[in-house]
Amino acid sequence: MIDLVSSDLVSIRNSLQNKEFTAVELLNEYIERISKSSRLNLFNTTNFEDALKAAHESDQKIIKGEARSLEGIPIGVKDLFCTAGVKTTASSKILENFVPTYESTITQKLHNEGMILIGKLSNDEFAMGSSNETSSSGPAVNPWKEINSDKELVPGGSSGGSSGAVAASLCPLAIATDTGGSIRQPAAFTGTVGLKPTYGRCSRWGIVAFASSLDQAGPITKTIADSALALKYMAGYDEKDSTSADIDVEDYEQSIGKSIKGMTIGVPKEYEELDLEDDIKQNWEDAINWYKSAGARIVSISLPHSKYALPAYYIIAPAEASSNLARYDGVKYGSRIKGDDLDDLYKNTRGLGFGAEVKRRILIGTYVLSAGYYDAYYLKAQKVRRLIHKDFVEAFEKVDAIVTPTTPTTAFGIGENLSDPLKMYSNDILTVPVNLAGLPAISIPSGLDRKGLPMGIQIVTNHFNEGKLFQFGSVVEKSRSSIKNQSEWWLI
Amino acid sequence: MVSKINNMTITKDTILKISNLAKISITDQEVEKLESEISTIISWVDALNEVDTENVTPMSNSLTNTLRMREDLVTDGNKVSDILSNSPADDENFFVVPKVIE
């Protein structure tokens, strides 16, 4: 029996290459564990049969000495990436039967290295949410619980299926997307490492689009070394994505554990005034002290427009979404609800196919783009976006990295924030500015709060400086206290 | 310039108008809920009016380079069955919709 709980991506890769177990043995262990974890509701679709075939082929390659870099390792993929021949629903009713005939660039790149798709992971419908409660397949559940409590918690969102699956050791790597915090916030809620690369670093081709100027793919893993390994094979230029950056991919693994002595860390003074939970504030102070001990210089910086990031985001993202989601019309693919005429068909299809959160965002987007409001809202938000970007550009003239908490709170209960959109949106107050500025950022597990729930520290660096994220991230990973989940209550 | 220029109230009619523009049918119950939720959100984003954006160029994405051009060449195609494979209704390589012209 393979100890999946104490395994990570790097250790699994090494064990497979050293023939300590076979790809088929590994896959069967994961399948068994996934089957025992159905209470968490993390998978929309499993791909066990095809995965077994692929694992057999991987074993042949390993025996013949033809193993590729990630040969035989199972991956979970957020159900927003198109996977050829495997249902891709975006956790929406409107795509419940959609089977792509093509493969997203990111998943194709990982398959080319020998990775095996084990299943498609739940998310908030069309990636719109911070709790993974708006999925058409129902809420995903966090493997973590408060000490002495039976309350089920959200795994964060929108990539809650991905964060939950890695935290529950159902796959060593999940591929997800982050538009306003959808990788980092779920990572913080589940004690996992979540990376949002620079906008343009990873191809968006074949990913169901939400807000195209903000969307970016990234990995969720257990460790920083795993994150660096995954990014190495995800990053790179793709001519099929017009915003893909033609910039060399660094050897990210070399940055891990590299000294940060003499480097400078910025602490944004505006964030200190935010409504953060006491334990999160304390944890942030602890992290700053870890950096001091590691030889970094700490300076206070100002991001004066950061308080406008969330309102600007909730104009820009819905505007882009209303445009992107116009394609779901019941004509070319997806579900169709009949109507008396074409207009009726569109309205019925979209009225019944989209959930409440998605409808609300499309309507807000339609409103801010409509005649008479475009300048007052959409253009205004884009101008504010420029100022937010400028704040960061100026900060990075003085500092190597910015260190903040990832979220204002730890994981909350299922249903607790659903009725108050603004409260739900405030989850992303620390992550959204990064997307507006197109910067890379990572959330690293940094300890447990008094309730026994994981907290995360966010590190932000300048554009295309992912290597430094891993370098600075290593300090948190080394200095924090243990974040092991003590109970596997969900196993049946 | 610090002023509240938007300050438009969202009414039931606004919701009906934008849901028509977005081609989304909504029930009477939904109209009421959306009216209150969207009003709250729009008055919250009105905070942006506090920001002086005089002479600021709007930013549509964070990349500094302009979008790439490529040769106008066919690189893909002949995938009719792929394209139709998820269609809710099709006939002789056409998507089928209700009659549009009488």
What do you see in this structure?
The complex is a heterodimer of chains A (492) and B (102). Chain A has 492 residues and is of the alpha/beta class. Chain A has helices at residues 9-17, 23-35, 48-63, 105-112, 160-167, 184-190, 224-234, 269-272, 278-293, 309-324, 342-353, 356-369, 374-395, 421-425, 432-437, 466-479, and strands at 43-46, 74-78, 116-121, 174-178, 193-196, 216-221, 264-268, 297-301, 401-405, 441-448, 454-460. Chain A has a domain at 9-262 and 466-479: Amidase signature (AS) domain (Amidase signature (AS) enzymes). Chain A has an eleven-stranded mixed beta sheet with strand order 1-3-2-4-6-5-10-11-9-7-8, sandwiched between helices. In chain A, helix 7 packs antiparallel against helix 16 and helix 10 (309-324) crosses helix 13 (374-395). The radius of gyration of chain A is 21 Å and the shape is globular. The model of chain A has no long low-confidence stretch (mean pLDDT 97). Chain B is flat and about 55 Å long. The relative contact order of chain B is 0.11. In chain B, a hairpin with a 2-residue loop joins strand 1 and strand 2. Chain B has a domain at 1-53: Orthogonal Bundle (Histone, subunit A). In chain B, helix 1 (12-21) crosses helix 2 (28-45). With 102 residues, chain B is mainly α. Chain B has helices spanning 12-21, 28-45, 80-84, and strands spanning 90-91, 94-95. At the A-B interface, helix 10, helix 11, helix 12 and helix 13 of A face helix 1 and helix 2 of B.
